[in-house]
Specification:
Layout lengths: L10 H4 L4 E3 L2 H15 L8 H22 L16 H27 L4 H25 L6 H24 L2 E3 L4 H19 L8 H4 L6 H4 L7 H30 L13 H13 L15 H25 L9 H12 L1 H5 L9 H34 L9 H21 L1
Parallel strand pairs: 1-2
Amino acid sequence: MGYIPEHALANLRKYAYKGVDKSLLSKHVLNPFWTWLVTLWPTWVAPNTITLSGLTMVLINFATLLYFDPTYLSEKGGATEPPQWIYFTWAAGLFIYQSFDAIDGKQARRTGMAGPLGEMFDHGCDAINTTLEVILTCRALNLGRSWWTVASLAASLANFYLTTWEEYHTGQLYLGVFSGPVEGILMIVGIYTVTGFTGTTFWDTPALTFFGLDKVELITKYVPNRGLNEAVMALGAVVLGFNIITSYYNVFKAKVEANEGPFRPLLHLLPFPITVLIQIFWLSSPSFNRSFIINSSLFVPFMCAWGLQFAHQVGRMILAHVTKQPFPWFDSLWIWSIIGAVDANMLRLIGRQPFIQHSPENVKIFIHLTLAIFFFSYASFCTQVINEITNYLGIACFTVRKKDDIGNWRRAASVDKINTNKKA
């Protein structure tokens, strides 16, 4: 069984990307740069090749974290400080990722390959990048393995989910005056750059002291003098709140214009908090201690597994968007996460030790098994969807169509549209 039902395959030919970018930085600075950058790529290079090249930069960044800070995956937990110059490479790698992510669509239009496959591929890479950047950014901010990092991942995934949910209901990708793919990424590039000059301990500096506000009684009375890294987290929470309001406003407006119920889409937000609660329930299990996973070498594998489960979930959402299928309420990977969370909390639920995770060694085996299962599940999803789309449209994922092929594809799309209209 495939992910795209037979009746939904024809919708692939009808799909057309629509996007709105309100960012002034993007319009006046970055877009002229991207327009020039795409001309450096030969037209025989497929857009998805550019997208994957960008993700490779992020994977290299993540690999350098594990190489230069091996204790991040050990019980000591980041006791070895990576060399400061490594943060400059993280900044460069992320900037390259953003640039490649921005020009893959331009390359698609240059080569006549714009379509649903590129949309799926782009979102899949973005979903993987989101989790990896949270881990890297929190390391650069000296937050490391902590509940702050968990909160940061939840907030970052929430922003991504909101964007995908909004695109599903409005039919277009909306990037506001401050968006994750533009200003958010540049802010992280700035964090990496500052850390490269100052080291991670700089971010522990009390924020009010740093800005010279610790002597202002009116401010210190209501604002705690916490570290700069926690101030960054607070800023992220404000941005998330703003994006929630903006996303729903766009969905509300689109539904009213279409004479549809503007409140029903809110129900489609429920799957995300459910998944977050499952993961937090698992992380806060009373077995051994409430922060056992967070304070152990299992933290990074757990976060990566969570990110893969999320990527699978939003991947199915964007697939439903490009094929005009019903909203996917349930994700099969939830079952495994629920088993893990319930088992870890057996002491809290029924007063007995977990059946599976009853020892630190068993917890380690189970979480690494979770990571492996989620990785292969997401890889299988990506492979199957790519095969279904390429087989139906007669295209290749990493090969540019010849001009004749493009003409045939467009003629086939027109025939499908005519047939659809006749049926209607």
